[in-house]
Amino acid sequence: MTNNVVVFGSLRNRLAMILTGGAALLAMLLFFVVRAYATQIAQEGQDNILGASVSSILDAAVLRDGAVELDFPYASLSMLSTSADDRVFYAIYEDGALLSGYDGLEAVLPVQSGESIFTSTNYDNAIIRVATASRTLIGIDTPRQVSVSVAQTQDALAETLNRISRNVALFGAGFFALATALAFWAASTTIGQLSRLTTSVTRRGPQDLSPFLKPVPSEMVPLVGSLNTLMSRLNQSLKQSEDFIAEAAHRVRTPLATVRSYAEATFQRVETQENRDALRSMMRAIDESSRAAGQLLDHAMVTFRAENLEREDVELDELLRDLVQRMMPVADMRDVTIDLESTEPAIIRGDPVLLQNAFRNLIDNALKYAPADTSITIHVQTKPRISVDVLDQGRGFLPTEMDKLAGRFVRGGDTQGHIGSGLGLTIAQDVATAHNGTMVLSNRTEGGACVTLQF
After folding, report:
1. Which of 134, 42, 67 has the alpha carbon at shortest distance from 96?
2. Strand (E) positions, 301-391?
3. Every domain of the chain and the residues it spans
4. What are phi and psi for residue 32, nearest 5 degrees?
5. Contacts 24+ apart (CB under 8 A), 258-264
6. Among 164, 122, 173, which Cα is nearest to 36's?
């Protein structure tokens, strides 16, 4: 029963969400790391080209007649051409004064002459990358400091980085989708161990209280150990209950039977009508108590054994034949005959103790309501299904009460003067239900009641 279980989330969904969240975090981390590394590599490539351009210009600078002359090499700028047609800027300074190019490109000069420094800045409404290097020219009079700055816009670099970002994003999305599928698979596989344990518990019959011996993951060992301990305690408790019921039946029935015998013997010796009426009432009360106690214990035993059926092949005709022989003395005392009709063996898988208890109660009810000099017929048939009919020639059931007579302690309105507890039909129905059968009450057309147990 899971109706009263308080549900708080799902282990499968929780595990899948944790794994999926981890996959998403890894995918984002992968994207930013790869993009940063690609940016670094691409920037280093552009810087190398800018540095080579600056070096080629500086190498062309000479000092002649006290003036700086520079034969501007064509290749120094053509090497900066890109597919995106990036714009190129340059500036040549002599001791801080602009000799040629675009003013405003000079960066902080490097500490040592000949080294190049690289900066990014905004120039002419565009982000540019600037490479700056300097060189000292030694002349007759004084040395001259010549610095060269070459700048280039980064459109081609941005396009390259965008292409790399798209590819990395697609790769990350594929990685995330694969990781998500693996996360749900891993969650289902992990929770599958619990599902298999649940299925194993569900498929067990009520009588199967043996421990679980199949291998389980180490994390489930405490749970399975607790289940095995619970099974052991339940098995011990059920055995104690069965022993108690059997002992209680003996303890209750034996003293009542003894008192009944003494009361009957005293009744034979008493001659006063008043005393005989008192003893007769006493014997009736003893009979009612004995029957009620017996049927209460029978009902408890049926309830217990129905949850712990010990099934075996039972031949119903033999079981009924033995039961009829044992009940014949009671039938003879009431001038009633019992006839058993069976054309072929009827064998079912069931609990012989419960089946005998159910048929004994049905036959006992029939004997109780059957008039003298009549017969009770027990008819066993196997087609279309195995069924047993117990028929008497009494007054039958009241049509308005048939649907309620199988309830506990329910007796018909025409049972005055008959000892009973209202549990006989309840026991028979419980036994039929425990054997996947049904009990049907009906009245015979020629008069009398008919109780049918179908299996």
Report:
1. 134
2. 312-315, 336-342, 347-350, 374-381, 387-391
3. 13-162, 205-308, 310-455
4. -70, -35
5. 259/286, 260/286, 260/287, 260/290
6. 164
SS3 435: coil
- How many angstroms separate the Cα of 410 from the Cα of each of 65, 164, 297, 362? 135, 85, 17, 15
Best CATH choice for the domain 310-455 from the list 2.60.40.10, 3.10.450.50, 3.30.565.10, 3.40.190.10? 3.30.565.10
Structure tokens at 70: 């520079």
Q: How far apart are CA 281 and CA 265, in angstroms?
A: 14
What are the backbone dihedrals phi and psi of residue 148, each rounded to the nearest 5 degrees, phi first? -125, 130
Q: What is the pLDDT along the chain (455 residues), one digit of tens a residue?
A: 555 666 666 777 788 888 888 888 888 888 888 888 888 888 888 889 998 998 888 888 887 777 778 777 888 888 888 888 889 998 888 888 888 888 877 655 554 566 788 888 888 888 899 998 888 888 766 788 888 889 999 888 888 888 888 888 888 888 888 888 888 888 888 777 777 777 777 777 656 677 877 787 777 788 888 888 888 887 787 777 767 766 666 666 677 777 778 777 888 888 888 888 888 888 777 776 666 666 666 766 676 676 667 788 999 989 999 999 988 888 888 899 999 998 888 899 988 888 988 898 899 888 888 888 899 999 999 888 899 999 999 888 888 888 888 776 676 655 555 555 567 788 888 889 888 899 999 998 888 899 999 99
Q: In the numeric block, which tokens belong to residue 262?
A: 């003494």
> What pTM was estimated for this model as a whole?
0.46
Residue ranges of the alpha helices (H) in 204-272?
221-269
Helix (H) or strand (E) holding 140: none
Helix or strand run (H / E) with residue 119: strand 116-123
86 and 154 Cβ atoms separated by less than 8 Å:
yes
| Cβ contacts of 434 within 8 Å, gap of 6 or more | 302, 305, 306, 309, 351, 354
